[in-house]
Design goal:
Elements: H1 20-39, H2 45-50, H3 61-74, H4 79-106, H5 112-127, H6 141-149
Helix pairs in contact: 1-3, 1-4, 1-5, 3-4, 5-6
């Protein structure tokens, strides 16, 4: 990843200590985290497929964006809002990398269920254990794990 691909301000002083794959994983993590937030109040059959997705440790944010978009397209969703949310999540990933690279690099996941667990942990830190926002578009990760293991 070139330095120019990180947008929105000055780079952190320790930016140079991260490998290209660290940067790609951190950006992917930021993208997935923001995508979860942007789509959490929406319901779609595509969510059921995305929730069970896994990806290679070297997948980029753009790789996942294309995979997610393809799932929505194949399920007949209106792509206008989907494309808007994907663009917003990619932009967020580039901007937030400047400030949270260490955090995102250490939270990198290779599947959507782990990303939902990470989302729950973040909400607990932000809102406390009992005052988390209600979700509607994504199922609980514990429920998804049970379904995955019962297959």
């Amino acid at each position: 990843m070139e330095q120019s691909s990180v947008q929105g301000g000055k780079l952190p002083p320790d930016y140079g200590r991260f490998s290209e794959s660290d940067l790609a994983r951190a950006r992917r993590t930021a993208f997935v985290a923001r995508f979860i937030v942007l789509r959490e109040s929406k319901r779609s059959r595509a969510h059921r497929i995305i929730e069970m997705m896994e990806w290679d440790k070297d997948a980029t944010a753009e790789d996942l964006a294309e995979q997610f978009r393809r799932v929505f397209k194949e399920n007949g969703d209106n792509l206008g809002p989907v494309d808007r949310d994907i663009r917003r999540a990619l932009a967020h990933a580039s901007r937030s990398l400047n400030y949270f690279i260490v955090e995102y690099a250490t939270r990198a996941t290779t599947n959507f269920i782990e990303a939902l667990y990470d989302y729950e942990r973040s909400n607990t830190l932000l809102f406390g254990g009992e005052e988390q926002p209600r979700t509607g578009g994504w199922r609980l990760p514990r429920e998804l794990e049970k379904m995955k293991h019962s297959r």
